[in-house]
Amino acid sequence: MFPPIAPDYSLHPALGRLCYSATIMASRSVNKVILVGRLGKDAETRFTPAGISVTKFSVATSRRWQDKQTQEWKEETDWSDVTLWRNENLSQYLTKGTQVYVEGRLQTRSYDDKEGKKVYRTDVVADEVILLGGRSDNAGSGDAEGGSRSYGAAASRSTPPSKPKPAPAAAEDPFGGGMHITDDDVPF
Prior knowledge:
Elements: E1 9-11, E2 18-20, E3 33-39, E4 44-47, E5 53-66, E6 73-85, E7 99-112, E8 118-131, E9 149-152, H1 153-156
Parallel strand pairs: 6-8
Antiparallel strand pairs: 1-2, 3-5, 3-7, 4-5, 5-6, 7-8, 8-9
């Protein structure tokens, strides 16, 4: 797979201890994306001819900085197109303005447009999507269900869902009986 590289231990100048050389790491690569942002429009779910669902949406991420010359605050927004496979019931929760955490990888594909020109497109293929809150007009109030929810490959790797437990009686609920929380609502 990789050419053999002899281990190289050397004294790290700042740490003052032996450290393994980074020459092996140079022969590997990492393709990981983490986004926290808001949806620019409602997600769309379609199905392949084989019946596999594909949910697509765009996420806006912003950064803010102060111009050193003018001392004026500036903001820049980047848009990332996200593709999530095999989660057909998700689009009803992914609505415009919803804040999400997306973890996945970059994938670039190319195609020829109508004029025969080669076009390159880079998307984020999501492994995990977590709803962080409601729409921007409800920011900070949480989603309609009262908390974060996780979707994607990481969520499907978890244990199969058990039978729902009955909601505790109001006298047993330390929070006053208004929140009917089951094991499925706990994110860990």
